[in-house]
Amino acid sequence: MGGEDRELLKIFLGSRGNMKALERQLGVSYPTARARLDSVLAKLGIEPGGGPAQEGSLDVLQALARGEVNVEEAAARLSSGG
After folding, report:
1. What whole-number distance in Å separates Cα of residue 73 and Cα of residue 22?
2. What is the pLDDT along the chain (82 residues), one digit of tens a residue?
3. Sign of the alpha-carbon torsion through 60, 25, 36, 30
4. Contact indicator for 64, 82 with CB cutoff of 8 Å
C-alpha cells in the first residue's frame, strides 16, 4: 500500500466515512472514489460491506492513518479479526 492509498484512508477516516466528502476531496466522481476505496480495502484484505467479523477494522484503519501501525501490522491485525 503506497502513499496515495494512505492519503485516501486519511481523508476517508477524517471525514468519518463520508463518501461524498471523499469524492470532493479527491476531485473525482462518486464511482471513482468508491472504486479507489474498494481497491485500498482489497489490498488490506477487507471485503467491502463486511459484517460483524469486520468489527474493530475501523480502529485498525484509524491507527494506520495516524501512523501508529505500519501497513504490514495493520494487515496482520485485520486478517486476524482486529
Report:
1. 25
2. 688 888 898 888 888 888 899 899 999 998 899 899 888 888 887 776 655 445 577 788 888 888 888 888 887 887 776 5
3. positive
4. no
pTM: 0.59
CA distance 43 to 7: 14
Sequence-separated (6 or more) residues with CB below 8 Å from residue 57: 46, 50, 78, 82
Total structural domains within the chain: 1
Domain that holds residue 58: 3-79
Gap between the terminal Cα atoms of the chain: 18
